[in-house]
Amino acid sequence: MKLRYAGALLLSAAAYYVYLPLPGGGDAAQSLGVCHRAHLLNKVVSWAETIEARSSATVHVSDGELGGVAARIFLSKGDRKPKRGVVYFHGGGWSLGTGRMRSYDLLCRKIAEDLDAVVISVDYRLAPEAVFPDQYRDALAASRAFLSEEVAERYGLDRHRLCVSGDSSGGNLAAAVAQELGSDATMTAHFKAQALIYPVLQALDFHTPSYQQNKAVPILFRPVMAHFWLLYLGADPSLESALLANNQSALDQMVFDPAARSRLDWATLLPARRKKNFRPLVVPKGTPGLLERAPALLDVRAAPLLAETDVLARTPSAYVLTCEYDVLRDDGMMYAQRLRDAGVTVTSDHYEDGFHGCLSFAYWPVASGVGRRAVDNYVKWLDGNL
Questions:
Q1: pLDDT of 210 above 90
Q2: What is the C-alpha to C-alpha distance for residues 160 and 311, in angstroms, rounded to an integer?
Q3: Cβ burial, residue 130 (10 Å; 0-12/13-18/19+)
Q4: Of 291, 271, 289, 211, the residue nearest 244 (C-alpha)
Q5: Could you give the CA distance from residue 4 to residue 232 in angstroms, rounded to a whole number?
Q6: Three-state DSSP class for 81?
Q7: 47: number of Cβ within 10 Å
Q8: Eight-state DSSP code of residue 316
Q9: How many angstroms separate the CA atoms of 338 and 333, rounded?
Q10: Mean pLDDT within 158-179
Q11: Contact in structure between 227 and 237 (CB atoms under 8 Å)
Q12: In DSSP terms, which residues pair with 317 in a beta bridge?
């Protein structure tokens, strides 16, 4: 236990070191020639947080694959037949982490035990080796397999009671998968629910009220989120300052579909109490060629908030968890509103004392009250909606 506590402290220190900015837009790890920042932090994660697959009296846990993608499988030993199921995508900016981390292992184990269900946590490929659409394709392949007759027979799943879920960048993948498969008429089964935990859903506006309010609030700083986006999209990291200035959505960017603007217009999609006194940042002239250098900024598979209304209407009932002290708060709130406008049943679960990543702070040695409440309410929603 003491080793785990020391590991948590080391992980925090490493995160600070890895994202320490240097003059000229560089970062400490790469500038010192150690390794890519994502590789360094993942090494620390592997040492401090990754645990072996260990079964218990109530849940059988094993490592395997789903749709050709590495995964950890949590199979309840309860009597329910057939079982409900959840496919889960971990967070980490599409470049960090694994479903084998202690916090994710405990979360998925709890879901499986409390719901007498099957939970499969997917280890999609990570940046920088894999870039968009690789992570999306892994998530889609795993989800198609999860909905298949073959996997249902293997694990005793009820194909009518399945959910796609994830947090942060994993919430992004879950939303994108729900859109794609909800519109796929060839599927013989569809997800009954989507559960999105502080999802990241767009990279066209880094000046939403939550980005302005929480730009320097741990654990997800505004520049770090811009960095993650560029890493995911395989774009030049030197574009970070342009993204943070909202140059990608400037008025002179003619390739930016005007209709897409309304899909992230927080002035109309957010309630007044969230907008507060913040004002939209509208840039007259952007960085020339920016969208040509990072075209996936406009790809709905990368930015699900940009999807058309009819696509959203075909997605399943949704649970959207947001936190007040999180730059991504408004991404989730805007998406929840757009889903409602499309006729989708949505449960919004907002935590006034919440912060990004709080679900991972539900367990010792970094347990927090809001983390425990968030986990309990999330699992309760799954139980009542699957």
A1: yes
A2: 20
A3: middle
A4: 211
A5: 30
A6: coil
A7: 13
A8: P
A9: 9
A10: 98
A11: yes
A12: 193
Q: Give SS3 for 328.
A: coil
The residue behind tokens 């009819």 is 310
What's the confidence (pLDDT) of residue 53?
96
Q: Give the catalytic positions in this structure.
A: 168, 326, 356
pLDDT in tens, 33-67: 445 677 777 677 666 688 999 999 999 999 999 99
> Burial code of 131-169, b = ≥16 C-beta within 10 A, e = fewer?
bbbbbbbbbbbbbbbbbbeebbeebebbbebbbbbbbbb
Q: In this structure, are residues 140 and 180 in contact, taking their beta carbons and an 8 Å threshold?
A: yes
* Residue-level length of the chain: 386
**CA–CA dist 93, 63 (Å, integer):** 23
Give CA–CA dist 315/312, Å, rounded: 5
CA distance 357 to 49: 15
Could you tell me the two tokens for 33? 């020639």
pLDDT at 82 exceeding the cut of 60: yes
pTM of the predicted model as reported, rounded to 2 decimal places: 0.92
The tokens for 282 are 């509208």
Q: How far is CA 317 from the centre of its chain?
A: 18
CB-based burial of residue 79 (10 Å sphere; 0-12 exposed, 13-18 middle, 19+ buried)? Answer: exposed
Instruction: Using alpha carbons, list the distances in angstroms from residue 327 to 101, 224, 275.
Output: 24, 11, 13
- The DSSP string of 47-70 is HHTB------SSEEEEEEEETTEE
C-alpha to C-alpha distance for 228 and 37, rounded to whole angstroms: 11
Distance CA(324)–CA(310), nearest Å, equals 29
Classify residue 280 by its DSSP letter: -
